[in-house]
Design brief:
Blueprint: E1 2-10, H1 13-24, E2 26-33, E3 49-56, E4 59-65, E5 77-83, H2 86-97, E6 101-108, E7 114-119, E8 125-130, H3 132-138
Parallel strand pairs: 1-4, 5-8
Antiparallel strand pairs: 1-5, 2-3, 3-4, 6-7, 7-8
């Protein structure tokens, strides 16, 4: 079974998150900037948000600043599925990427979970991840 989380790409994730908090109630639960990523080198990107977790109206949303591509209608949203096990994550990733395009292979990420991104054959972007506790159990 998977958990669905909406992932929003933004020109300014912090400001957009604050808007949603004011509009819907809630709070920002975590923020990670590019400068906090191991091996990050681009000084001009250090304050850019690579992951922001927001709970608004009781729903969890993930957001990030768009750093490497322009935002246009159609690329500001990704479907993010978090799986309880690595096996489920691999199965979903492999099935969804068939006849599609792998943007980032499903592999261990610096935060302790598997993570990969793909575009399916219909043009929908998917972010597939595993629960971090599932990753720790296999190490």
């Amino acid at each position: 079974m998977a958990k669905h989380t909406t992932y929003i790409f933004s020109e300014d994730a912090r400001a957009q998150a604050e808007f949603y908090i004011q509009a819907l109630g809630g709070e920002i639960t975590s923020v990670t900037t590019y400068g906090e990523v191991p091996g990050a080198k681009e000084e001009e990107l250090k304050d850019k948000v690579i992951n922001l977790s927001l709970v608004a109206a009781g729903v969890t949303f993930l957001m990030s600043d768009s750093m490497f591509e322009a935002l246009i209608p159609g690329n500001v949203l990704s479907l993010c599925l978090e799986f309880a096990t690595e096996e489920e994550a691999h199965s979903a990733f492999n099935n969804l990427s068939k006849d599609g395009k792998v943007n980032q292979p499903l592999e261990p990420a610096f935060w302790g979970a598997l993570f990969g991104q793909l575009e399916d054959k219909y043009g929908i972007t998917w972010m597939i991840t595993s629960d971090t506790s599932a990753c720790r159990e296999t190490q």
